[in-house]
């Protein structure tokens, strides 16, 4: 009997998520809300709730980007223990991060709206990489761009076998060689 209330409830969760601050005290609320949206957007029966380029763009601008952006607390965790930060950022854990949940939201968006999501994401990635190219102190922009690409590029993965399916609309090797590998080669 909840189905008739789902559109209104989804709007409430969506609006709440757009007002959540990046403070750690709101992490649980943010991750639960993002997971809720992911579960809906990934199912064909709820496709109508999210159809429309404007809706997808709003999800990107008001939910995805803010929750992929590295926060001051994340930077402090990285500075305190880089290896632990990287492991927790890369591996699944009991306490899912905003960034990991947001990448799952991107994957769910790709399941239903692959072409539209890929196009919108590519626009944001190009804009962010342009900001980084113009001002290297804006490394956070490049970090978000990389996480956006990871979110839309991977269609299927498992802990045992790793990535098993990629989004054909994303040239992973070109992105890696142009924007990641070159950075790994730098000595400073």
List the defining traits of the structure above.
8 helices; globular; 188 residues; two-stranded antiparallel ribbon; mainly alpha
Give a written overview of the molecule.
By secondary structure, the chain is mainly alpha-helical. It contains 8 helices and 2 strands, in the order αααααααββα. Strands 1-2 form a two-stranded antiparallel sheet. β1 and β2 (about 160-165) form a beta hairpin. It starts with 5 loop residues before the first helix and ends with a helix.
Gyration radius, to the nearest Å? 17 Å
Please give the share of residues in helix: 55-70%
What proportion strand?
5-15%
Query: Oligomer, anyone?
Result: single chain
Unreliable stretches (pLDDT < 50, length at least 5) are none
Q: What is the strand arrangement across the widest sheet?
A: 1-2
Count of alpha and pi helical runs: 8
Assign the structural class, choosing from mainly alpha, mainly beta, alpha/beta, alpha+beta, or little secondary structure: mainly alpha
**Main beta-sheet annotation:** 2 strands, antiparallel
Distance from N terminus to C terminus (CA atoms, Å) equals 59 Å
Number of strands: 2
Write down the overall geometry.
globular
Give the H and E element order: HHHHHHHEEH
Q: Mean of the pLDDT scores?
A: 89
SSE topology sketch:
Blueprint: H1 6-19, H2 27-41, H3 53-68, H4 72-80, H5 82-90, H6 98-134, H7 139-153, E1 154-158, E2 162-166, H8 172-185
Helix pairs in contact: 1-2, 2-6, 3-6, 4-5, 6-7
Quick take:
By secondary structure, the chain is mainly alpha-helical.
